[in-house]
């Protein structure tokens, strides 16, 4: 080979080698930058998680302080302190079931987007519940934004249909009017065992329907007032609707669902003295000695007792460990400053708290990739039942949790790390809610 050719070949080889070294250096730098970026992402994710763990911590000493604060507020409201957050409503129920009850009874349970009508034949202590039937009816959306008259006419019509298929297994003595217990799970100022004035509509009922905002948010968080019917006797409204239907039935008791739960518990066990609702919302009722209720007016009941509907969802105190996520949720809600305790523990809000934490992780630590999933920005898109399903995923690869993230948030592929972080967030929110609820 000629000397020039050899030199040329050497030059080419050296150039190729230099290029290879350059490429290797570039690849090494890119890998290092990716590693550094990944390390930074993990550091940021760990920082957010650590902050959430601290904010959602509920040590025993804190829970005892919350319980003590609740007692103070209960006593304030029993004295009719106008600044006390708890309503501590007098239910006018001073006698609870004993288990000896006989006869045919009806019940209407109105507390949300559905209502139930129930009939039960009681046979005393020996036979107890002889037979019962119930039917659940969905309330058409247009009636939730219509008028109270339209709503109660619809309910009375469905109740009339239900009575019409009573059957021979249920026995009403001749000449006796059917008795109806009315469970009305909205704030009511009760004036007797069978009357009470509406304070406000909640749970998605917007009688005037004039607010313009996200429909899913309205469904889960709305708190509007029917200006025509606030202050009206809800038993009177239902009674007039039944009369228009020609239904011979009398409302003999008006109770909140929590008071009804307490009565049901007492029917089974005479030692039951309190009931707690932990669902879409939260509330509690208990048996109080009537002579320690300063705001009670009139003659004391013969039993010496009175069931108190606490409406404890509105409890608020500086003892409550409100995180930045709780404060933001409350500020952006349609009832800011109200139902503070409920917003920390109830089914209406737990999924939304998780969403807000995941959103911060997506923004600050790219939990779901470089682009924040657009659906994660939507209020209340993550419902508490879905959060609960993720919380209970025990599969080794959290495939069920991953499927929820895909179906709800539109994230097609999530890393195992992202799924475990999401599970941990669900655990933190659920555990805090449970411990705060148990503190009471």
TrEMBL record:
Q: Give the record's keywords alphabetically.
A: ATP-binding, Glycolysis, Kinase, Membrane, Nucleotide-binding, Transferase, Transmembrane, Transmembrane helix
Q: Pathway membership of this protein?
A: Carbohydrate degradation; glycolysis; D-glyceraldehyde 3-phosphate and glycerone phosphate from D-glucose: step 1/4; Carbohydrate metabolism; hexose metabolism
Q: Which GO terms describe its cellular component?
A: cytosol; mitochondrion
Q: What class of enzyme is it?
A: transferase
Q: Which residues cross the membrane?
A: 6-27
Pfam (any one):
Hexokinase_2
Q: Which CDD domains match?
A: ASKHA_NBD_HK_plant (cd24020)
Keyword Cytoplasm applies: no
Query: What's a single GO MF annotation on this record?
Result: D-glucose binding
Gene Ontology terms: biological process: glucose metabolic process; glycolytic process; intracellular glucose homeostasis
Gene3D superfamilies named among the record's database cross-references: 3.30.420.40, 3.40.367.20
Span of domain Hexokinase C-terminal: 274-439
Per its record, the protein catalyses:
D-fructose + ATP = D-fructose 6-phosphate + ADP + H(+); D-glucose + ATP = D-glucose 6-phosphate + ADP + H(+); a D-hexose + ATP = a D-hexose 6-phosphate + ADP + H(+)
Residue ranges occupied by any Hexokinase N-terminal domain in the UniProt entry: 49-216, 227-267
User: E.C. number, please?
Assistant: 2.7.1.-
Write down the PROSITE patterns for this protein, in alphabetical order. Answer: HEXOKINASE_1 (PS00378), HEXOKINASE_2 (PS51748)
The similarity annotation says: Belongs to the hexokinase family.
Instruction: From the Swiss-Prot or TrEMBL record, give the protein name.
Output: Phosphotransferase
Q: Which organism is it from?
A: Panicum virgatum
